[in-house]
Amino acid sequence: MAANSPNSPRQKMINLMYLVFIAMLALNVSSEVLDGFELVEESLLRSVNATSTRNELVFDNLEAFYKTNPEKTEVWYKLAGQLKAKSDSLFNYTQDLKIRIVKKADGKEGNPTSLKHPDDLNAAFEIMLDKRSQEKEAEILKREINKYRDYVTSLISDTVKKNIIKNNFNTEPSKKAQENKQTWEESLFGNMPMAAAVTLLTKMQNDVRYAEGEALSELIHNVDLRDVRVNKIEAFVIPKSQIVMRGGTFTANIVAAALDSTQRPRIFVNGRYLSDEANGVYTVGAGSVGTFPVKGYIEMVQGDGTFVKKEFSTEYFVQEQSASIEPTFMNVLYAGIPNPIKIDVSGIVSQNVFASMTNGTMVRKNNVWEATPNQIGTDAVITVTVKTNDGRTQEFAKKIYRVRRLPDPTAYIEYKDANGNPVKFQKSGRLSKSILMNTAELKAAIDDGILDTEFSVVRFDVRLTDSMGNNIQETSDGPRFSQRQKDRLRDLTRGKVVYIRGIVVKGVDNSEREISAMEITIN
To answer: Residue 472 domain-assigned?
Structure first.
């Protein structure tokens, strides 16, 4: 009896064998369940084959139509090609996993359509959840499914179909898996019989083909394979300009709104057929002044082979060439400064008007031109050209201007009054000694509200009579009052007169000139 003691090695072996036997009973999968997996697998494979065949036919039709009408189908055909490549990639990856699982259980000759050990509990786990790999195959599969789901649903506008595909490719753990604290990967491939794992992967392949088919249907729907599906068709004349200069060309596009761009309509203008080479552009010369009609109709083929006729009508106006070139503030041009010039050409938009000049440069500033002449005494010739509707460049007008030197500026002393407002003292008059002493520099400008041009002061003389009756003259070396000039001014008393003479200035042309003197009585 001692041999059967609970602590004897023999009893321990019996207990261990019993536990193993109980575990085997618990893990055993009935043959009926395995047979059920086989039936589901066969049904899924039939569905996969049927859907794959349908998808191939749809893609072949789209490819054939692309070859005959690439302009209309290029965008959708390229999207379909991308869809097919992504779908095949996920489908083939899933097929490779099935083969690897089956061969793990059944050996090198294993075949997913004929399982020898459908109840094997290790093969799916070892292939899909092997912790020795840097990244588990089940994790890779989950990532690829998520990417494919997001891509394919972006191609589908129908909300119901979007939701079906999202549910089919849902990679969140089920409620049961969450209760068991399992991930999506573990719930599908952990301790799963090989037959069940293979069927699950086949179901994923079926979902891929279903999603591919729905997306293909969406793409093919975007390509009109039959006729123009519009509610209203109208003919229009779109002229580049309804005002044409005599000698120019009237040009207009004649189109049909809601027209299928891959079908070429027949256009008749003023009783004559507009050739296909014109591509809907009607062009006619404008030889005489007046108003001219553009009337006709467009014929288009409908889906049933009949013609629809839509009429159009407009007119255009031909007028004599005219242009004006006028300086905005004077009848001459001044050298060295930009002179504003207004140029108008009737019937021509400003973007198609161009101007050039001799003895200087012309620059467009928005709707005004600026003419800057170079040499004084040499005439400047301004020429205006326009770009006509037919693309030709045509000269419209010329005008000759005399180029003069800018008039002399006026010297002034600038200060602020009791309210802080700037004041300019010019030429002659009474001025307080304090203002004169606080003035840093002498300035000069043409300040007539038109030219408004500043000059720089090169030098000037201060002339006065001292208390001894001596005439004193002090010269600056720039626009600022020198210290010696300030010292002389400080000794002046009320009623004394100061002359600022010998004022030399420099203009924008860098030439120097002497301008009129100033006479100041100390107040």
So the answer is: yes
